[in-house]
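Thanks for the sequence, V.! I ran S-acyl fatty acid synthase thioesterase, medium chain right away. Repeating your input here for the record:
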Amino acid sequence: METVLNCLKRRPDAVARLICFPWAGGGSAHFARWGRVMDSVEVFALKLPGRETRFREPFFQNMEQIVEEVVAALLPMLDEKPFALFGHSFGALTSFAVAERLKKQHNVEPVHMFLSGAPAPFSEIRLKSQRRSELSDEDFLRWLSSMGGTPPELLGNPEVLQFFLPALKADLHVVENYRCARPERPLLHCSLSCLDGKDDLPHNLQEWRCITSGEFTIRMFDGAHFYLKDPGNEKLLLDHMLKHLEASQLDYL
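Predicted structure:
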């Protein structure tokens, strides 16, 4: 499990576990550190091949590979206490794919899903969007700069980019080729929070509503796509998740 999931602070008495899925090209560090400040929640962050301690491993080529690995790592621990899933952008789609597999094949589901900065996988917005992974490096960097959230010193450092760009393009290749049909009936029963930056591209978050019969809320934060990197927004986000997870514990009991 340690190969796939990063947990910086084990909390045996935690009321719930939060499994975090990073954005495209991202690692586990940003989310794993949440475990040091969320006193009542044990936080695990996904580590994908081709980065961090797995930098020698080849990138995954499709969503199926991600789902297979993550579900195998999660299953042994999911009956111990309630769990929730958080994903941002690429991570929102990968977390949904994992939740779908857990429900359909193992009849297990989270107590809450937090989906951030992404359209639903069956959304027309997503299906018609440009395939960024196929852009030239020059156009790709121009697009990446327009998204914000990536330090300018990184974008201007060729040595850093030669490690960063392949992981980012590999993840985009996965998500751009991921297809999912709109469910005819709700797949899940858990509560769902959709989160986004007010200045991000419109994602039509209401389209996520059909995946669950549980409570559905949308919360918008100041900022653009990487709103959650702002310390003030991060605090609001963590407070939002803690409130829902501590409430979910009462329902779980």
